[in-house]
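Morning. Coffee machine broken again, so started the prediction first thing and wrote up yesterday's gels while waiting. Chain of 504 residues, entered below exactly as on the submission form.
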Amino acid sequence: MAGQPEGGPLRCLVTGATGYLGGRLVPELLAAGHRVRCLARTPGKLRDHPWVGDVEVVRGDVLDEESLREAMRDVDVAYYLVHSMGGPDDFERTDRRAARMFGRAARARGVGRIVYLGGLTPSSVPEGQLSPHLRSRAEVGRLLLESGVPTTVLRAAVVLGSGSASFEILRYLTERLPVMVTPGWVRTRLQPIAVRDVLRYLVGSAGMPREVNRAFDIGGPEVVTYREMMRRYAAVAGLPRRLIVQIPLLTPKLSSLWIGLVTPVPASLARPLAESLRCEVVCEEQDILGYVPDPPEGRTGLDEALALALRRVKDADVATRWSSAAVPGAPSDPLPTDPDWAGGSLYTDERELVVPASPEALWQVIEGVGGENGWYSLPLAWAVRGWLDRMVGGVGLRRGRRDAQRLRVGDSLDFWRVEEIEPGRLLRLRAEMRLPGLAWLEMYCERDERGRTRYRQRALFHPHGLSGQAYWWGVSPFHAVVFGGMARNIAGAAVKQEAAAPAR
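Came back before lunch.
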């Protein structure tokens, strides 16, 4: 990564630290000798990150100008890494408002530089003809450049790294479909970039001279088509050569539905990614090299970027995923256990079992739920619930896990989010599927008054209106099968875990 500027360590504000790139940028800034402050709407989501003890975390929101100004106190460089990918219909207005607030707050606090990562757009295409998301990225960059604060706008196309949405789409499409019927955009030329190079440019931008106020194209060393990327991935992964048949009639909307069907990435997120590939996205200049030169070994090539990402996935060493960021529209109301809970109807389904196994064995099963391990009851029923969720625009069941064995607060877990984890005792999940209300699932590992291991499970639902009431009573007849079976099977898995421990 880039070295420390001549003026010594800088105080850097990072927004989007709970997201894919922000969560990776923080340790790189620390390694470069800078001091880091993270702005988060929910600071608790950063609690389990390995670097959290080395940074300052403040509560705030890019749509709350007062909290922005407070967060920017004594800040030298402010990183703007938030956007509304997969967000609501009015995301352009929201992004515009946030960018203006960010620029005003930075100017008011005398911030030395803003660094923003946007999307690569061809100069030959009028902004009005760009996809809505690319158009919004371009507008945000322009607003920050006009803020009166020296700004670096980095414009990247496809970012490849373990856990990135672009990599997971490429990975699942190639691995699951030996024969692919693809849209016409697979012929579009693009310039992918490895996430390690994106981070190097982000860190290096902190030390740019004050007079620099412009956008830079950033990309890897190769220009390829998406079709070529799929074939290169198959070769790197040791898969047979893929047969790719192109159908130009597939629209971005149909493409996103197709991606959502085959990959864990929901259509709401896949669509802006697919739309961005309608136009050629190739760097038109390399001026960034005058400020952040290539390392001696050069930028990361496509095959190396794919191999590195694939190795981290196989080694379960994925630091952040595309699903690390909160889902737009996901419930953010207080938990029923929070002091400021407002009351109202709260339905519960509670199960309790004595488990003839150690608490350690039981906890290992609890922390390993979801993903490849499933939910320990009626796999088809869970799969159908996931399909139904995706059909109505939800995240579905296939987001999986960041790590196959360990969870941390803020992790996505299929269509849940880890809301709280007390190692060895409690795992609380908040539902992010589309529901007429708020839902949580709690799993406890305890000892009873006789010293026996006890598993306690609690599902909670806070309905919204009549539809929420109807939903709860409509599904409640199935709870004995789904939640009862889940409790029994988790207990049984803990017993098996205990029996297998001496063998291991």
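The chain is about 35% helix and 20% strand. Going to sketch it on the whiteboard this afternoon.
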